[in-house]
Design goal:
This protein is an alpha/beta fold. It has helices at about 5-10, 30, 45-55, 60-80, 90-105, 115-125, 145-155, 165-170, 175-180, 195-205, 230-235, 245-255, 290-305, and strands at about 20-25, 35-40, 105-110, 130-135, 160-165, 185-190, 240, 260-265.
Length: about 300
């Protein structure tokens, strides 16, 4: 594992003092990160040798019981936030729930930017190894549809689902035309929150005023009102804007039967994200500001940084 921010709570989740991480990696540079005990080996071969050395050793029952009960408790929370809704502007989590219910687990899911990687990381129930593809970095906007096409080329017989926001779609969407030309069908779910909702929420969380993220908060002569379904259809896709979560589930059921790339557009709430299952994310806050909200956020940030551990 890369032990990145999502996995480690920006290195604030580790509470086992005196323990040392074993870094199993084929690259010495990565194996030694965070003061790990480096074990440089092929992952499969390294795990096989570790398993042989451990023989019949098992983790304490208290440890495995805690993991099992935690997983069950999380499944209950996840079911709540992904449940269907009649809201005019559903959350990303509710859209994820609709995709999961309509498409099942026998699909490969692609995502890359905005709030979706954080939500899907927690909420998507992958059906098999290799069926969840999240390319994030510092939010790799524009990757999703091109990545989906690559996944379809690698798995031509599998249903490929791409989840993408309106901002990322506008940055790069031309592979829709390529997918139609090549006969490589994708199902694309486009969540339109009218701007850059994830960065807007981060801006608010760090004490900033709403500025230049949601379209309504940006300088404009005319507020954009883009017909994404018409745009996708112009590139040859089957395209539809759905009015609700129920409408999305029905459209996804039809999309499964389609033999051509299908784009489904749904309006979503830009301000709602899933609190449950979350943890701290190290997003730096200015040390000096005339805004009381920023100063308060900086104080909280400094306190959270005290929770970080380097790795042992």
């Amino acid at each position: 594992t890369r032990l990145q921010d999502f996995t480690t709570g920006s290195w604030a989740l580790f509470k086992n003092s005196g323990k040392t991480i074993i870094g199993l990696n084929v690259q010495p540079f990565d194996a030694g990160k965070h003061r790990a005990l480096p074990l440089v080996a092929d992952a499969a071969e390294g795990l096989a040798e570790l398993g042989a050395a451990l023989k019949d050793w098992k983790a304490p029952a208290s440890w495995t019981d805690n993991a099992s009960s935690g997983k069950k408790a999380w499944a209950v929370e996840a079911a709540k936030v992904t449940a269907s809704t009649n809201a005019a502007y559903p959350s990303d989590a509710q859209v994820i729930g609709a995709v999961q219910r309509a498409m099942g687990s026998g699909v490969t899911l692609l995502n890359a930017s905005g709030g979706l990687p954080g939500e899907l990381h927690k909420l998507w129930q992958a059906g098999a190894p290799g069926s969840y593809h999240g390319e994030y970095g510092f939010s790799t906007m524009g990757y999703e549809i091109a990545g989906g096409l690559g996944a379809k080329m690698a798995k031509p017989g599998e249903e490929i689902v791409v989840m993408i926001g309106d901002g990322s779609y506008l940055m790069m969407n031309s592979e829709i035309a390529t997918s139609v030309m090549l006969g490589l069908k994708l199902t694309i779910v486009l969540l339109d929150n009218r701007g850059y909702g994830c960065i807007n929420r981060l801006q608010m969380a760090t004490g900033g005023a709403n500025f230049n993220n949601l379209l309504k908060d940006s300088r404009h002569e005319v507020l954009p009102d883009i017909d994404f379904a018409a745009h996708a259809a112009s590139m040859g896709a089957i395209a539809e804007k759905v009015p609700s979560i129920a409408g999305l589930e029905n459209a996804l059921a039809q999309a499964r039967k389609n033999t051509r790339t299908t784009v489904l557009v749904i309006d979503t709430d830009p301000l709602v994200s899933t609190d449950a299952g979350g943890h701290w994310w190290d997003v730096a806050v200015p040390e000096v500001s005339v805004r009381p909200q920023v100063n308060a956020a900086r104080k909280a940030y400094d306190e959270k940084r005290q929770m970080q551990t380097i790795g042992d």
